[in-house]
Amino acid sequence: MMWAAGFRTAVIDPYDRLQFAEPRGFDGQTVRQVLHMAGGGEALRVRLTNQYGRAPLSVGAASVAVGRRRAVLTLGGADRFVVEAGEEAVLDPVELSVAAGTNVLLDLHFPEKTGLATYSHRPAELALIGPGNERVEARYFVSGIDVLVPDGTAIAVAFGDSWFEGVGTTIGANHRSVDFLNLRLDSGWVVNQGIAGNRLLRDGVGDHAAARFDRDVLAVPAVTHVLLHFGINDLALPALLGEAPVTAGELIDGFAGLADRAHRAGLTILAATISPFDGADHRIRHEVNDWIRTTKAVDAVFDVARAVADPHSPDRIRAALGAGDGMHLNDRGAAVMAGTVDPGLLRS
Questions:
Q1: What is d(CA 216, CA 258) in angstroms, rounded to the nearest whole number?
Q2: How far apart are CA 248 and CA 252, in angstroms?
Q3: CATH of the domain spanning 152-346, picked from 3.40.50.920, 3.40.50.1110, 3.10.270.10, 3.40.50.1010
């Protein structure tokens, strides 16, 4: 048996200059979070993160619930503990079995001021903050859950942007592209490390792909495969931020660099084409996509761009698949995106 990632959520810095959600902290409050498991196992261990905190994080109580079964979480045997600034804590394992597709409820009580929380900002799921039962689309101070599974279980990481994280899909429905993909797999699963607004080449919303690759891909327990979906924000955000635009060559070099790092770590890598969206420099997008479709740098391609494009206006998302903002997919579109990945490529 081995520990493998059963759930992941990629986190961002609440002090970043570009925010798509309002950062916040807590003081004498309890936060309940719904964590949808990509995979299950005989036992679990929760990972908390204070990656971008500027002070130690005090946790007064923590617990998980799976259905009617509940377990208190501890760190080194203590039910009150501290996660130091810049650190992640792997809590003590609990003998609580969990199945793939199950929602785990994580309760964290913060008895004193936390400062702004390290968080996931657009996860298509609500956190419940008490007292008062305020509902917020975000996750706070959590980075994942590991599960105890048979040796050889294949774990893929969906590493990318909002098209993985789930922006545009129904909140609370688990209709992200990664969720639909997991329904198609007969062995192993895919954990979601998407960050809305994230870029391949430059920081902005979260560390850029090359900067977070070690933490969010290579450090994932039992990882065997990585799926890339980047490029939209590299093309869209420079004008908003007053930056110089990126070139096709820079994007190609960025993808090739990630592929090389994945291969050196023994991982199989799949890359998505850059999908159409309103406001894109489509000349650059087409040049990069031509490279992605023909390169030997990656092991396989999933051609999301062709699958979701409007056949009458191929530089736009097909209306039936779009979320209405010209940039993201709805539930049906997320299912189409998932359908572009060959499940056979994700077996161990």
A1: 12
A2: 6
A3: 3.40.50.1110
How far does Cα 117 stand from its chain's mean position? 17
Q: Say if CB 205 and CB 198 are below 8 A apart.
A: yes
Per the DSSP assignment, residues forming a β-bridge with 269 are 226
Walk along the chain (348 residues) in steps of 10 and give the mean pLDDT of each run: 98 92 96 98 98 98 97 98 98 97 98 98 97 95 98 97 98 98 96 98 95 98 98 94 95 98 98 91 95 98 98 95 96 98 92
> By the 8 A CB rule, do 165 and 195 touch?
yes
Q: Give pTM, 2 decimals.
A: 0.96
CATH T-level topology, domain 2-145: Jelly Rolls (2.60.120)
Q: What are phi and psi of 210, to 5 degrees?
A: -65, -35
CB contact burial 60-88 (16+ within 10 A = b; e otherwise): eebbbebeeeebebbbeeeeebebeeeeb
Mapped onto helix, strand or coil, the DSSP state of residue 288 is: helix
* Contact predicate 51/12, CB 8 Å: no
| Cβ contact 163:304 at 8 Å | yes
Ranges in the chain annotated CATH 2.60.120 = 2-145
Sign (positive or negative) of CA dihedral 267, 273, 279, 280: positive
> What are phi and psi for residue 99, nearest 5 degrees?
-100, 155
Contact (Cβ atoms closer than 8 angstroms) between residue 332 and residue 339: no
